[in-house]
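User: I've been trying to design a sequence by hand for this structure and keep getting stuck. Would you show me what you'd pick, starting by listing the structure so we're on the same page?

Assistant: Good idea, let's start from the same input. This is the structure you sent:
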């Protein structure tokens, strides 16, 4: 073999070795990059280092309040301080959201949307749209209690299951960008975005407004229904019309599990604007009505036993929620105690026989 051919052969071997090396290196780098993306923090998660995040939200408040039936986004500025005292500001978009609260609240609930590029620049994942639960009523003390009690309802569900929306309490200063309104200082809270929840749990959310009752995971329905019964909330529905619940489906499964949200009509929160559900013959917001199904008695009893096992934890969480004054905490604990009394006497279980449909 001539020297030239030997050199070409050696060159080819070296070139191939280099290709395979870099191909393997890229795969490893890709895997590492994929892992970094997977564990990348979201903006929402960055707030969790603080019990309460101080926020300043500046926008045309007069327009937001007076034109609450409009669905177009308005420019706004969102500023907050982290646990180290560093301040961050983002240019965002806001718009009114909700149906009933949009009609009756002095201050509407809001949807806020960050720019994905801004989140990338801050090394956050791109979950950028959030529901902001606002104070609703102008009365400072009443609105504070309503917000804190509804926030507490979400946190109680978090204590029971990871398959629930996480929430972050905020202390918000609302500023009118045109200077026509005075600053408004109120409590509020952010709800984890639907996409972030889906990513965290490894599920697909339902995108349909109407769904067959057969598509609902019965155990998941009954778990959610017992929570709703515990807090005295009948303002929800899974089928055929989906209302105030998120339906999620794990990959490879055929039925949807139920994640409740929106608890301001519950007896536990007991807002002044809530109305008892006349469809179930209720006379008071604090009355309860179970909306589960009766297809598997053992399954229901197992769920009830699980709730009983969490009684001490839930009561302790309420007792330690010091943002609520002592009398309000006692009121919440008394309401939960009435639920557990019914559960221990098996009076809740008897209602399963009569409420065989969630409608």
């Amino acid at each position: 073999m001539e020297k030239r051919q030997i050199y070409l052969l050696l060159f080819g071997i070296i070139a191939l070795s280099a290709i395979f090396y870099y191909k393997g290196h890229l795969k490893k780098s890709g895997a590492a990059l994929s892992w970094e993306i997977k564990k990348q923090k979201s903006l929402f998660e960055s707030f969790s280092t603080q019990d309460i995040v101080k926020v300043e939200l500046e926008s045309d408040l007069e327009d937001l309040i007076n034109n609450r039936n409009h669905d177009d986004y308005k420019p706004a500025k969102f500023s907050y301080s982290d646990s180290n005292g560093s301040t961050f500001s983002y240019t965002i978009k806001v718009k009114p959201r909700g149906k009933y609260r949009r009609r009756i609240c002095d201050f509407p609930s809001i949807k806020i949307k960050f720019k994905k590029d801004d989140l990338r620049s801050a090394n956050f994942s791109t979950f950028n749209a959030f529901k902001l639960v606002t104070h609703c009523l102008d009365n400072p003390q009443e609105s504070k209690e309503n917000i804190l009690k509804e926030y507490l309802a979400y946190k109680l569900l978090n204590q029971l299951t990871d398959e629930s929306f996480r929430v972050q309490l905020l202390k918000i200063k609302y500023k009118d960008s045109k200077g026509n309104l005075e600053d408004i200082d109120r409590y509020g809270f952010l709800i984890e975005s639907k996409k972030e929840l889906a990513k965290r749990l490894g599920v697909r959310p339902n995108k349909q407004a109407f769904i067959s009752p057969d598509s609902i995971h019965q155990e998941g329905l009954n778990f959610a229904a017992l929570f709703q019964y515990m807090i005295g909330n009948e303002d929800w529905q899974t089928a055929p019309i989906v209302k105030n619940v998120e339906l999620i489906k794990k990959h490879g499964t055929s039925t949807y599990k139920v994640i409740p949200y929106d608890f301001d009509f519950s007896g536990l929160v007991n807002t002044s604007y809530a109305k008892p559900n006349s469809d179930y013959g209720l006379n008071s917001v604090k009355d309860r009505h179970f909306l589960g199904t009766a297809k598997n008695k053992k399954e229901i009893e197992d769920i009830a036993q699980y709730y009983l096992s969490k009684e001490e934890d839930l009561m302790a969480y309420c007792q330690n929620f010091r943002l609520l004054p002592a009398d309000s905490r006692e009121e919440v604990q008394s309401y939960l105690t009435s639920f557990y009394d019914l559960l221990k006497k098996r009076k809740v279980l008897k209602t399963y026989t009569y409420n065989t449909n969630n409608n």
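That's my pick for every position. To get oriented when you compare it with your attempt: Residues 18-37, 352-359 have pLDDT under 50 and may be disordered. Residues 43-195 form one domain.
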